[in-house]
Amino acid sequence: MRRWHAPTLAILLAAMISIGSTSESVKLALHTHGTLHPWIHLLAFALVGFAAMLCTRRAWLRLLLVVALLLLAWGTEYREHLLDGWPIEAGDVQQDDVGVLIGTSVGWLASWRRRDTSNT
Asked: pTM for the full model?
């Protein structure tokens, strides 16, 4: 494992936990129920997806991370439903999933390009 893999994985895990455990009061303080709401979902999950692709080159681990992020989107909404009493918002999950797909695609392309240029 390269020296930067462990810190990247730690940051990725911290981001996943913080996304999944944001309380209702923090969300209301951030005004995440407005025009920027879908963009915040998209950007947050895109950044985490991007980091996920940079932390390893193993295909099986990358696939596992993508699945974990997609499940995190559903798990976050389900947690909000159970603990805060909010209805499950399929639109939020859709934005999260699109963010994961964009972030992981860009991260995969960036890591592929970096590997390609390092061989020259």
From this structure: 0.72
